Amino acid sequence: MTNIVYISAGSNIGDRAENIRRGIGMLADMGDIVILDQAGYYETAPVDYVDQPWFVNTVFKLSTRLSPSRLLARLKAAERMMGRKTGGIRFGPRILDFDILFYNDLVMNTPWLVIPHPRLHCRGFVLYPLMDIGPDLVHPVLGKTVKELTDDLDGGGGECLLMTGRQEALCAGN
Asked: For residue 52, what are the domain limits?
């Protein structure tokens, strides 16, 4: 069975957009993953730990036959290949960060993986890019569309500035 998965990507070290492009490219090169769509790039204020540079964030859609845990292992492998170190400040600076937002309409809660992502509904840096490619996606726990969740932010969730539109991001990344 082919699974449809939405992934968030962020970086705030070095050439942030290039880090994301390279990371997504690595995933596609690993096999068993096909990139289907990608949002624009957004420059976003840090959330939770704010004493750090702004991030660049995007969301992309992929298809895969990998299980959630095997996909997570691939995402973490790509982060490591890009130079991400473990440990450090929670929500602190990072060269690359991938998170599974939605995996079909799966609801999963394990010590190492929660799907849908437990904070996506309150994170502008996730919801605004997700609006580019999936405004009608329904959160399987909250029962609201991405558009409704974005409307509910009401100015919260961190400041987001569009850097490149969706079409520009696709051309640069593929």
From this structure: 3-173
pTM: 0.90
Domain of 103, CATH number, reads 3.30.70.560
- Out of 16, 74, 97, 123, the active site residue is 97
**Cα three-residue angle 91-96-99, rounded to 5 degrees:** 70
Q: Name, in order, each residue with C-beta under 8 angstroms of 9's C-beta and a sequence gap of 6 or more.
A: 20, 23, 24, 57, 58, 59, 60, 96, 97, 98
Positive/negative CA dihedral, 174, 124, 135, 145: positive
Q: Does 84 qualify as catalytic in the annotation? A: yes
User: Does the active-site annotation cover 152?
Assistant: no
pLDDT in tens, 13-66: 999 999 999 999 999 998 899 999 999 999 988 887 778 899 999 999 999 999
